[in-house]
Design brief:
Length: about 140
C-alpha cells in the first residue's frame, strides 16, 4: 500500500471525471500540448509525512496536488479562472476519497494563485493539499 501512489491515483481520477473533455498532462506521460485551446498540467509534490501522534503505527502523508490551468494569451483570464474554481470546488475542504482502503482528505481550501504569462500562455495554478492517513501494520 503506497500512500503517495494512492493519492496520485485518486486525485488524477477525480480531475479526469470533473473535466473529461479537457486535455490533461499528467506527470511523466507523453503529451502534446494543444496550441489552440486550454489544457491542464499536473504535478505532485510530496511534502513529507506529518507525525501528529506519539504512535509509530500512524502518520499522515502530506502531498500537494498542483493543477496548472494553461490557456491562450490575450483573451483575458475569465475562462482559466472559471476552470480553476471548478477544480477548487471539486477538491473543496472536507472532501474525502478512499483509494485501496486508504483515506485521503482535503483539510484546507485549495488555493487559486495569481496567473502569469509563461512561454506565451496564461498559467493559473491551483494548489491542493492532500493528507493520506497511513496505518502501519507490524
Amino acid at each position: 500500500m503506497s500512500a503517495i501512489l494512492n493519492t496520485k491515483r485518486a486525485c488524477e481520477r477525480a480531475l479526469l471525471a470533473l473535466l473529461p473533455t479537457t486535455p490533461i498532462a499528467f506527470e511523466n506521460v507523453s503529451f502534446n500540448a494543444p496550441t489552440d485551446k486550454l489544457y491542464i498540467r499536473t504535478q505532485f509534490v510530496n511534502r513529507g509525512p506529518r507525525d501528529i501522534v506519539a504512535s509509530s503505527k500512524y502518520y499522515r502523508e502530506q502531498i500537494s496536488f498542483q493543477c496548472f490551468i494553461i490557456d491562450l494569451p490575450n483573451i483575458g483570464t475569465a475562462r482559466a479562472i472559471q476552470v480553476a474554481e471548478q477544480i477548487r470546488t471539486r477538491f473543496d475542504k472536507g472532501t474525502c476519497f478512499t483509494e485501496d482502503g486508504m483515506r485521503l482528505m482535503i483539510l484546507d481550501t485549495p488555493q487559486v494563485s495569481s496567473g502569469g504569462i509563461f512561454e506565451n500562455r496564461l498559467v493559473i495554478p491551483v494548489l491542493i493539499d492532500v493528507a493520506a492517513e497511513v496505518f502501519k501494520e507490524y
